[in-house]
Structures are given as structure tokens and as C-alpha cells.
Specification:
It contains 15 helices and 10 strands. By secondary structure, it is an alpha/beta fold. The structure holds manganese (II) ion.
């Protein structure tokens, strides 16, 4: 595996994620989650937007001090607009981290420049130049993002990136701010930009994808194929509107389809599920049950055919093991589609070893119950072992 290309995982759960509805986190919660992200092995934590509020500033500062000071700590970043006060606040907030970054952004699409910022293209280029140079007076590591990059005029986008690189930006992020691009288009964009920007082999290009069309992860992976070497993502895919690319899905795709994505990350895979759970406990919602990699049902099998297969050999219906991502829940779920094999398996786990005749008897009762009841719990199964009036007792009920 000497050809593995390292990928920088840039987590923005505490910035892009936190600024979406229902995801507000308090100071101590942010700090606790930043420690978890550090243990997960992300390379960069975007800890917040220091100028946004005094509280945000204090959180970024505390994360830089308490999480970012350790020897192998992730790099700590703060977002900043192309404004002096933003950049100065970001610089102060991240200064005590061992490794830090100021992440400066400006819109590159005419729509944003005209409707939102009300500045000309020439003014935009001037702002980028001044802001990136100012940021570089505080830190060596400056990232520049072309907001709404995927809906920007290509020639102007290239001009803006060239200005940012000449001013000292070392990471260039081309965000799909509104979740509009497609995999092939996004891949091609990185290929073109890398070809056209002078000295682009010294620059790390980055993806930042939103999930408005459900393509955030696919687009991020396509960006890597196009030569991007940093992925911006969030736990559980939280973020503005439909969310960001989900970190756990990107990490799992790289690990599981290493043949197609020969990349290397520092993610401790078995921490994915605990991290997802912790986020769900902190904010107002967890991962949906059918969420890839970390959903409650991501490894669940209820139908008899699938259960039989998985109990015989997990590879029949599992492309990764639940344990590999730290999943601790029950994966054989009993319901009306389940077969004798799964019922027997669950009874064994609960300490009941029944004869084939007894299994048959309990199975009939089980299907009857499962037809009426949506969720079958362990206590329901145990209750099935008790004899109904006039029925034969199942022998070895303890
Ligand atoms: Mn975003």
C-alpha cells in the first residue's frame, strides 16, 4: 500500500454543523465534543466563527487551549470573512493551539457578489488579497474558500484562487455551498483548477459539499478523484439546510472501497459510532435510523432470509462489520419477517437452549405476536416461553 495518498479530514461539525437549526451547542458541550473529535483522529477542527459572538470566540479559544495544545492534537481553525476584525478575532482565538489555521472566505459567484455583498469582481479580488495577506501575518497556515464556488464563472474563480495563492493561502477550498454540483462536474472542476493555477502542486485543494440533492458524499469523493486532498465534513452530516458531507460515510467509503479510493486517513474507525452517539446526545436530534454507517438500523437484519445469511456468514449481507465502526447495538432484529433461525439465536443469547420442537412451538406464538406488535423486545420473547392456559409448558424455562 505504498501508493496510498493521505487525505486531510477537516471537521466542521462545530462551525457549519453548529450553525444549523436544532444544533446549537453550549460552551462545555463544544469542548467535550472537540475532545471526542481529537480522539476520533480528525486532522483539523473548525472550532467556530470567532467573530460571530463573544460566546463563539470563547469556545474557539477554549478548544485551542484545551484540545489544541496536546502533542498530537488536531489543528484548530476559526472561520473569518475578508474583514480585518474577523481575521484579528480568529487569530486571537486560535493563537494558543499548537497548530492553528485561519480560514478566510469570500463569495466568488456573481450572484453572491451582486445580491449579497454588493461589490464588483475587482473589489472582491482586492479584498481577498488584503485579507489573506493579513491572515498570514498571524499564522503560517491560511485556508481560503471561494463561497458558492460551484456556481461561479470558471475564469473568475481561477482568478480569485490565483490571487489567494499569491497572497499566501496554502489550502484552497472550493465549496459547493448550495449542494448544486454533480460528481463528474465537481471532479472536473478540481482537475481544471489544478491544471490552471500556477504552483498548484504546493497547494492542498479541498472539498466542502452540501447535501441538498443527496450528493454531498458522492461529490466529496469525486473531488478527491479530481485531486482534492482535504475533505470538509461533519459528524452525522449535520450542517446548513440538508447538511454537509457526513464524515463517517466518507471514512467508511475509503476504508471499504479502498480499491477505488486508495486514500489514507487518520480516523480511528471504531470511534465513529460513539462520536455519532455523543453528538446526538448533545444536540436536539441523533442520526436517523436508516443513516449509513451510524444509524440504529445500519447493521440491522429483520428478514428471515437476511438473518439466515448473516448468521451463517456475515459477508452475505454486510460489507463492513458493525464492530469496525464501533457499533454496539443489536443487529439481529426480530419482527414478523424473521425466521426460526434468528429466534433460536436470540433465545440462545438470552440463555435459553430449546429443542427443535420447543422452538417450533415458540415460533408459532412469536409470529402471532409479531403480526400484532411493531417492536419485539427481549421481554416479549421471554414471555413467549411461559405457557398459555391449556398449553404445554416449555421445559427449561428457568
Ligand atoms: Mn457550508
Amino acid at each position: 500500500m505504498a501508493t496510498e495518498t493521505p487525505i486531510v479530514i477537516f471537521d466542521t461539525t462545530l462551525r457549519d454543523g453548529e450553525q444549523s437549526p436544532g444544533c446549537t451547542m453550549h460552551h462545555t458541550e463544544k469542548l467535550r465534543f472537540a475532545h471526542q473529535l481529537s480522539g476520533l483522529g480528525v486532522d483539523i477542527i473548525e472550532a467556530g466563527f470567532a467573530i460571530a459572538s463573544h460566546g463563539d470566540f470563547l469556545s474557539v479559544q477554549a478548544i485551542a487551549r484545551e484540545v489544541g495544545a496536546a502533542e498530537h492534537a488536531p489543528r484548530i481553525a476559526s472561520l473569518a470573512r475578508c474583514k480585518r476584525e474577523d481575521i484579528e478575532a480568529a487569530a486571537r482565538a486560535v493563537e494558543s493551539a499548537r497548530k492553528n489555521r485561519i480560514h478566510v472566505f469570500l463569495a466568488s459567484s456573481d450572484l453572491h457578489l451582486e445580491a449579497k455583498l454588493r461589490i464588483t469582481r475587482a473589489q472582491a479580488l482586492e479584498n481577498v488579497d488584503v485579507a489573506v495577506r493579513l491572515a498570514r501575518t498571524f499564522v503560517d497556515d491560511v485556508e481560503f474558500s471561494t463561497e458558492d464556488g460551484t456556481r461561479s464563472d470558471l475564469e473568475f474563480l481561477i482568478q480569485m484562487i490565483t490571487v489567494a495563492v499569491q497572497a499566501g493561502a496554502t489550502t484552497i477550498n472550493i465549496p459547493d455551498t448550495v449542494g448544486y454540483t454533480t460528481p463528474a462536474e465537481y471532479r472536473q472542476l478540481f482537475e481544471t483548477v489544478r491544471r490552471r493555477i500556477p504552483g498548484s502542486d504546493q497547494i492542498v485543494f479541498s472539498t466542502h459539499c452540501h447535501d441538498d440533492l443527496g450528493l454531498a458524499v458522492a461529490n466529496s469523493l469525486a473531488g478527491l478523484e479530481g485531486g482534492a486532498r482535504q475533505v470538509e465534513c461533519t459528524i452525522n452530516g449535520i450542517g446548513e439546510r440538508a447538511g454537509n458531507a457526513a464524515l463517517e460515510e466518507i471514512a467508511a467509503a475509503i476504508a471499504t472501497r479502498h480499491d477505488r479510493y486508495p486514500f489514507k486517513t487518520n480516523i480511528a474507525m471504531h470511534q465513529l459510532y460513539p462520536t455519532s452517539r455523543m453528538l446526538g446526545e448533545i444536540i436536539s436530534f441523533g442520526a436517523p435510523p436508516n443513516k449509513a454507517v451510524v444509524g440504529k438500523n445500519a447493521f440491522a437484519h429483520e428478514s428471515g432470509i437476511h438473518q439466515h445469511g448473516v448468521l451463517s456468514n456475515p459477508l452475505t449481507y454486510e460489507i463492513m462489520t458493525p464492530a469496525s465502526v464501533g457499533f454496539t447495538g443489536q443487529n439481529i432484529v426480530l419482527g414478523k419477517h424473521s425466521g426460526r433461525r434468528a429466534l433460536e439465536y436470540r433465545l440462545n443469547e438470552l440463555g435459553h437452549n430449546l429443542s427443535p420442537q420447543e422452538i417450533e412451538l415458540v415460533y408459532v406464538r412469536f409470529i402471532e405476536l409479531a403480526d400484532r406488535k411493531k417492536n419485539i423486545y427481549d421481554q416479549d420473547i421471554i414471555a413467549l416461553l411461559q405457557p398459555a392456559a391449556g398449553e404445554e409448558l416449555v421445559n427449561n424455562v428457568p
